[in-house]
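Milestone 3.1: sequence recovery, worked example.
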């Protein structure tokens, strides 16, 4: 099966007939921030007619909040992203609603519509990429809280609101689950999200009604330490995740740290320096051939930092010692809170 990536995430179906709303709806005077619903990471996607499937887009999760002429773009932890993507305000003003809250993903795409997380990270260095907001849910519409509606009705309303605005709509993938997986993997895209078509929107919850399958292993981690190179740039990052409120070590990462990123980290992490190691499980018994361990001797070379900065890391697998094998830095995740970072797989 061959897909055109742009058609999957950009086209809007022509059928704009809305089903009659069912169930109760809550009134609210004005649109505001809603903590986004999250998908549960799984090893295999659910199958059946009650499920719909979309591309897992590789970018920053965000909400567009339109209230008359006022446009806000908020991250999943309610930080302002409009300064990063000011052009999206113009597009958002074209939405077919006076008041609306739309859930979606900010993505950098090339001319073929292929997402690139690294291009999003370094927007000025990739002029051939466009910054777009892919809409996939609607949480509020002209005085009505729509989160209690089933997904299929929310999607129908969303389709009507975005039509003609220039805002891309993420739509259902065609074909069987095995065909989807084969095609997404062949196109080197991040993964697939399965959503129950009859499910409500659960703000702030990681629900089994949304399930995500990542086809390359990657997730967010928190920086807790680093090692400096001879030129005082960052040579390696020490990253980890929270487990029962404790920061656990996952990897010592060097791959992906190009020179200008090393210098940027040196400046940012210097301001967060602390005297004590924040990882509860360091030192390890020894260094790993994959760079995953930190021995007692290695600890003497490390600098420790407040665990506040979240980064995206790609890796091959988890080892038996709960370390990442062949980890690689991909970019910053300013849309994530450090305390929310957990081991996903």
């Amino acid at each position: 099966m061959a897909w055109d990536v742009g058609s999957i995430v950009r086209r809007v179906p022509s059928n704009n007939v809305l089903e009659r709303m069912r169930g109760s709806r809550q009134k609210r005077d004005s649109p505001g921030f809603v903590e986004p619903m999250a998908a549960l990471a799984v090893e295999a996607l659910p199958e059946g007619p009650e499920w719909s499937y979309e591309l897992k887009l590789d970018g920053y999760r965000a909400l567009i909040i339109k209230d008359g002429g006022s446009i806000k773009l908020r991250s999943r932890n309610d930080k302002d992203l409009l300064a990063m993507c000011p052009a999206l305000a113009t597009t958002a003003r074209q939405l077919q609603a006076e008041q609306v809250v739309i859930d979606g993903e900010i993505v950098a795409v090339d001319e073929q519509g292929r997402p690139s997380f690294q291009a999003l990270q370094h927007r000025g260095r990739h002029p051939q990429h466009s910054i777009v907001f892919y809409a996939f849910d609607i949480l509020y519409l002209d005085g009505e809280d729509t989160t209690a509606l089933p997904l299929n009705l929310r999607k129908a309303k969303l389709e009507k609101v975005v039509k003609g605005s220039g805002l891309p709509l993420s739509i259902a993938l065609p074909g069987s689950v095995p065909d989807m997986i084969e095609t997404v993997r062949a196109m080197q895209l991040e993964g697939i999200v399965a959503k129950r078509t009859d499910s409500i929107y659960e703000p702030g919850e990681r629900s089994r009604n949304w399930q995500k399958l990542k086809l390359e292993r990657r997730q967010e981690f928190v920086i807790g330490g680093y090692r400096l190179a001879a030129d005082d740039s960052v040579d390696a990052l020490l990253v980890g995740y929270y487990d029962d409120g404790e920061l656990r070590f996952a990897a010592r990462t060097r791959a992906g740290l190009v020179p200008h990123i090393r210098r940027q980290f040196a400046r940012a992490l210097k301001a967060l320096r602390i005297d004590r190691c924040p990882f509860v499980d360091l030192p390890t018994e020894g260094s790993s051939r994959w760079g995953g361990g930190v021995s007692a001797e290695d600890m003497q070379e490390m600098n420790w930092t407040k665990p506040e900065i979240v980064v995206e890391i790609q890796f091959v697998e988890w080892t038996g010692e709960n370390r990442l094998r062949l980890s690689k830095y991909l970019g910053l995740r300013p849309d994530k809170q450090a305390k929310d970072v957990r081991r996903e797989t």
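Residues 10-25 have pLDDT under 50 and may be disordered. DSSP finds seven helices and 19 strands in the chain.
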